[in-house]
Amino acid sequence: MDIYVLSIFPEFIQEYIKIGVIRKAVEKGLVKITSLNLRDFTKDKHRTTDDYPYGGGGGMIMKVEPVWNALKSIKKRGLTILLTPQGKLLSQKKLHTFSESDSITIIAGRYKGVDERIRTFIDEEISIGDYVLSGGELPALILIEGIVRLIPGVVGNYESVNTDSFENGILDAPYYTRPAEFMGLKVPEILLSGNHQKIKEWKRQKSLKKTLEKRPKLLKNAELTEKDKKYLEKIEKGDK
Question: Which of 14, 39, 82, 84 would you call most buried, defined as having the most Cβ atoms within 10 angstroms of its Cβ?
């Protein structure tokens, strides 16, 4: 997969991709990440990427020309994404869709906003949440990592990816590791039993319980079996 990031701070992107899962993906040749400096695509001596908004108002607006010039320089820009608070909220389902693309181009905005005409050149607008940051570099990195770790061969144990929170529409089960007891706090006996079927059932129930307690809205769109539904009804009634 080829990923391009358009930013006025390309070094921000380049430093982060040198570590962790993304670095491994790059080293394995599974993904190539290129960050383009929008200032390199300006025509004036000051390398200006922003200007005052027509009609007045506070803040500066990202200019359309540098963005368009940068996009034109990419031979195969593929799916083009603008990161903006106005976009659709990023989800695990979206990340799976993006991970199937051969090429993705991400526009990391800055300033008050972007020239509206930039939206003419994009395929999707994505938001990472209902809050505002100074720029799109951090959201771009979140998007990149979320996509890259879903590419087969990137994460060593792919079962770990398949059991992450949100993969099945609900939160993940609780986990424990050594020691089996710490300050009087013990690991649930079922996890030490070796009974894989019982452990699987326990994990499913704990996932459902945790989702009900912390993110109940997720259950509305989750794929639930009749057994799941009966278990949730039991919890809601106060039964253990």
Answer: 82
